[in-house]
């Protein structure tokens, strides 16, 4: 029974992982080049709305994700233009875009979507194979959908690109010491802008996936703090892509644990169980940051670059 | 130069957003003469979730009988509620309908300041029947302004019937309940469902999960998955979205949602729904304002609950898996509940572990 519970928890964690992983990788791409993306929560919410609109227009969940990405690209263009080109305070811009994203999401949804629209999400492996009903043990892997596998592939690609390619080196340098990038003849502003746009685009994809697949609908507030959790995961991961996966697994896992503890009848106040994922995240964050004397934060994070 | 172009671009974007916002107005007016103006204050949005759409549908239904112009104040959090309610009252609308009991204190405060505007809000129990409890006694008709009427967020009979359906359909004799969080009001919802299930099948077992919010699709789906893995084959959902239905379908079990009829989401998976038809209680108050008979209406219907008796509460379309025998048994229980004097026990504590 304990083994069953652990397996159930594992696959439940993997089921929800793509939402956190894609959003965290998107935030990572921005922060890696030195730009905070405080608007992740608003951008994810906008992605939810745009994902639904994309599906409604074409009845394709893939197009829903594309709409989320494109909306994120536009947001990323605004964020990077203001923060990178015009050197507006990144925190202020991020908060502003957060509120814009929240407001715009409901506004656009109401404009395009008739009352009470729902979608058809991505097929799980079991649905693709024509098998429905309850599954147990390792058969639970059949509950995972294609987006899970793509999100893992995305992690591998981002990690490889950032750590093993020449452009990845310049991206890291843009976040650590932009003057070096300039001296090497590369345009810091372009690197930062493109990276931020792609990063914010990915955050939009995460929101679109949440709406098109998980809820198969849209409601304001459905992101429920996941944008902020993804932001914290980047810090928890100390700006390393491989650690982002562990951070996502930890948070998603604790989230699933609190549900399961209730189901098996653990006599703990439900309010504590609901707060458990957030408490755990804070504790781990404190532990990680206190263990190493040297901070891994990109040196130029949050600082605009002034070309001399 | 590039710098100036960027600044100019953002300035144009911001300025052009203003007329766009006005263009997407929120007035909904029926065809024909309409004299009344009604402002509905919603916590969420009229076309999102289930709780607010239930009220919106009710208002649109009333609009067909009693023409009025409908204004929507959506996304109104508690911290802004008094300001929003006062704003609409000062604009000269005839009726302000605040769709949630969390607005009640603010509504009462503003109602005292705007005696020419009628206010409608909700509460969970008939104040007249709970005068020994201060929190309900203060809401009695004698203690509130004359321009206030209350609707009852009272789905207890419906939830009871839903419990009967769930227990009779369940093959494993294990049913699950998804409750947003622990609160006296929501505990009453769940307990009524549980009592109905127990009446139908005394050996039924119930498990409850507190999700933490009205809207948490990932957690809701995870909870349904977990309940299914523990053997529950029917889940009663008090959540404000469809995620419980979707996961129930994926797990091959059944679901009973609340607030609106959700059988169209998955006709087989949704055994039935506990439907709140707000049009009936709302129409009474709105008609009274239109006819200038609020005083007399208020004497009889100061508190107007959702009820099986007047059809404002009912079970939605049944799934094909619900047999005729089950429907007959449910009808018999419903008939009994409609009898005057029959009341379901309302327990505020969380009794399901």
Can you describe this structure?
- The complex is a heterodimer of chains A (308) and B (353).
- Helix content of chain A is 72%, strand content 0%.
- With 308 residues, chain A is an all-alpha fold.
- Chain A has a single domain, classed as ABC transporter involved in vitamin B12 uptake, BtuC, CATH 1.10.3470.
- Chain A is built from twelve helices and no strands.
- The relative contact order of chain A is 0.20.
- Chain B is α/β, with parallel strands linked by helices and 353 residues long.
- Chain B has two domains: 129 residues, Response regulator (Rossmann fold), CATH 3.40.50; 144 residues, 3-Layer(aba) Sandwich (Rossmann fold), CATH 3.40.50.2300.
- A six-stranded parallel beta sheet of chain B has the order 2-1-3-4-5-12, with helices on both faces. In chain B, strands 7-6-8-9 form a four-stranded parallel beta sheet, with helices on both faces.
Summarize the structure.
Chain A has 308 residues and is an all-alpha fold.
Lay out the secondary structure:
The complex is a heterodimer of chains A (308) and B (353).
Chain A: H1 2-32, H2 40-58, H3 61-85, H4 90-112, H5 125-128, H6 146-164, H7 166-176, H8 178-183, H9 188-215, H10 226-236, H11 241-263, H12 270-291
Helix pairs in contact in A: 1-6, 1-9, 1-10, 1-11, 2-3, 2-4, 2-9, 2-10, 3-4, 3-9, 6-7, 7-9, 10-11, 10-12, 11-12
Chain B: H1 2-23, E1 36-41, H2 51-65, E2 68-73, H3 78-90, E3 95-98, H4 104-113, E4 118-123, H5 134-137, E5 148-152, H6 156-169, E6 174-179, H7 184-200, E7 205-210, H8 217-229, E8 234-237, H9 243-251, E9 254-256, E10 258-259, E11 274-276, H10 279-291, H11 294-301, E12 303-305, E13 313-315, H12 324-338
Parallel strand pairs in B: 1-2, 1-3, 3-4, 4-5, 5-12, 6-7, 6-8, 8-9, 10-11
Antiparallel strand pairs in B: 11-13
Helix pairs in contact in B: 2-10, 3-4, 6-7, 6-12, 8-9, 10-11
């Amino acid at each position: 029974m304990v083994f069953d519970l652990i397996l159930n928890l594992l696959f439940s964690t993997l089921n929800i992982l793509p939402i956190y992983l894609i959003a965290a990788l998107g935030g990572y791409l921005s922060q890696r080049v030195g730009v905070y993306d405080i608007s992740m929560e608003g951008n994810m919410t906008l992605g939810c709305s745009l994902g639904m609109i994309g599906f409604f227009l074409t009845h394709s969940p893939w197009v829903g994700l594309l709409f989320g990405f494109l909306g994120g690209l536009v947001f990323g263009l605004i964020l990077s233009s203001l923060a990178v080109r015009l050197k507006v305070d990144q925190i202020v811009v991020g908060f502003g875009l957060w509120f814009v994203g929240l407001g715009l999401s409901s506004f656009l949804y109401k404009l395009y979507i008739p009352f009470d629209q729902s979608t058809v999400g991505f097929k799980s492996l079991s649905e693709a194979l024509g098998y429905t009903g309850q599954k147990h043990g390792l058969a639970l892997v059949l509950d995972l959908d294609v987006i899970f596998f793509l999100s893992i592939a995305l992690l591998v690609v981002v990690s490889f690109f950032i750590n093993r390619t020449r452009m990845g080196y310049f991206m890291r340098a843009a976040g650590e010491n932009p003057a070096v990038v300039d001296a090497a003849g590369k345009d810091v502003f372009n690197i930062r802008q493109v990276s931020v746009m792609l990063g914010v685009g990915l955050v939009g994809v995460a929101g679109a996936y949440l709406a098109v697949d998980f809820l198969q609908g849209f409601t304001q507030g459905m992101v429920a703090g996941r944008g902020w959790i993804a932001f914290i995961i980047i810090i928890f991961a100390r700006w390393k892509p491989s650690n982002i996966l562990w951070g996502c697994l930890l948070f998603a896992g604790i989230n699933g644990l609190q549900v399961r503890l209730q189901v098996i009848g653990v006599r703990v106040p439900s309010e504590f169980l609901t707060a458990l994922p957030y408490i755990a995240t804070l504790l781990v964050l404190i532990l990680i940051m206190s263990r190493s004397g040297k901070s891994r934060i990109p040196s130029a994070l949050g600082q605009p670059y002034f070309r001399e | 130069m590039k710098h100036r172009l960027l600044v100019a671009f953002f300035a144009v974007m911001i300025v052009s957003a203003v007329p766009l916002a006005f263009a997407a107005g929120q007035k909904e007016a029926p065809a024909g003469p309409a004299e009344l103006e009604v402002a509905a204050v919603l916590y969420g949005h009229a076309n999102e979730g289930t709780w607010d759409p239930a009220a919106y549908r009710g208002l649109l239904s009333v609009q067909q009988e009693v023409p009025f112009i409908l204004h929507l104040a959506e996304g109104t959090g508690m911290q802004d509620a008094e300001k929003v309610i006062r704003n609409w009252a000062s604009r000269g609308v005839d009726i302000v309908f605040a769709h949630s009991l969390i607005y009640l204190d603010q509504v009462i405060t503003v109602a005292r300041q705007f005696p020419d505007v009628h206010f409608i809000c909700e509460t969970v129990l008939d104040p007249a029947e709970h005068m020994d409890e201060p929190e309900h006694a203060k809401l009695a008709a004698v203690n509130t302004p004359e321009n206030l009427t209350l609707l009852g967020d009272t789905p207890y009979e419906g939830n009871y019937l839903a419990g009967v359906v769930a227990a009779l359909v369940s093959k494993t004799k294990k049913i699950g309940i998804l409750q947003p969080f622990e609160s006296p009001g929501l505990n009453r919802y769940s307990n009524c469902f549980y009592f109905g299930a127990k009446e139908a099948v005394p050996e039924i077992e119930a498990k409850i999960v507190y999700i933490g919010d009205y809207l948490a699709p990932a957690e809701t789906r995870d909870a349904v998955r977990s309940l299914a893995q523990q053997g529950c084959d029917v889940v009663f959902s008090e959540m404000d979205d469809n995620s419980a239905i979707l996961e129930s379908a994926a797990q091959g079990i059944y679901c009973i949602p609340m607030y609106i009829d959700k059988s169209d989401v998955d006709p087989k998976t949704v055994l039935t729904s506990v439907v709140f038809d707000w049009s009936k209680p709302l129409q009474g108050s709105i008609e009274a304002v239109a006819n200038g008979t609020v005083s007399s209406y208020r004497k009889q219907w100061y508190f107007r609950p959702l009820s099986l008796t007047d059809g404002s509460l009912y079970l939605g379309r049944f799934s094909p898996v619900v047999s005729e025998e089950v429907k007959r048994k449910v009808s018999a229980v419903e008939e009994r509940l409609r009898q005057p004097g029959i009341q379901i026990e309302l327990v505020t504590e969380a009794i399901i572990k």
